[in-house]
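Quick start: read one record
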Amino acid sequence: MPTQPRHRFLQACLGLPTDRTPIWIMRQAGRYLPEYMAVRQQAGHFLALCKNPELAAQVTLQPLERFNLDAAILFSDILVIPEAMGMPLRFGTGEGPILEPPIRNASDVAKLLRPDPEKSLDYVMQTIKTIKNLLADKTPLIGFSGSPWTLATYMVEGGSSKTFSNVKGMLYDRPDLLKTLLDRLVEAVTDYLNAQIRHGVQAVQIFDTWGGILGHDEFLEFSLESMQKIIAGLNRIGPDGQTVPVILFAKGCGVHLERMAATGCDVVGLDWTTNLGEARKRVNGRVALQGNMDPAVLYASPEKIQQEVERLLCAYGPHPGHIFNLGHGIAPDCDPAKVAVLAAAVQNFNGKSSS
């Protein structure tokens, strides 16, 4: 039998009562922190930082040194999986990620490798080991991966896209080919997350950044189905004997909340377009919920940030199973002082709104 977690973040993930609502923030280690930019410059470029376990561990812990957060999240990038599968990856200046040549036909898919994460992604495992040693179990560590659909968008488009014309063209003209690619990614992501769990991450999150660009039925068939396969293939007991919760975050997909809750995940992450109180009633305790303040609120005054925190916490109400987070990642131009206000507002909330 798994042991009961002692960290409030993990307790909340499993729907257990907590002394207060835990908080962590997507993209909490990133460009909005000047200390992160200094380390990134030291590394030379973004991908070099991801592949340097000592520096990646250092930036993972930077936000914990500034803010009283309840979880750390592994510093890496979702596109290390396509690279490990054999696709050359680089980050162009001002261009974002570039994967060349892109996946466009059956021959391209057939060339993809099934990576051994203990070998081709060993630098990630070494980063986890380094972070775990530094944390000394004071704060739980979250591992993560991109979803198969989200990874496929980058692999077929060759990078970021505004129209997703190639991957959507494949979806409608060659759904069989896209499903073959997605199945290859299910294998790779499952192996990768299981390796992270073996090395000691205490929760994992699957990021479906681009699920919201799909139509209703297409999301169920080409995104949710793949994520459900991954969840079914995970070893949910960590080396410490504790349950490793699985968080499923699909941006722009609140309409599918009940279906996401039925995948076998422990937590569903919400973006800011879903009402948190209504979401709690819709899932009715089947899963915990994570979120869901609009990241743009961090551009507002400290008073407004505090009001929004109180509004969301009051909307959820005095129920277990809530992790406070943004509805997406922190923007690079965010003022770190506003994040301090956010964290303090969550921690000091007494159940009553000041407005």
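The chain has one domain: 8-348.
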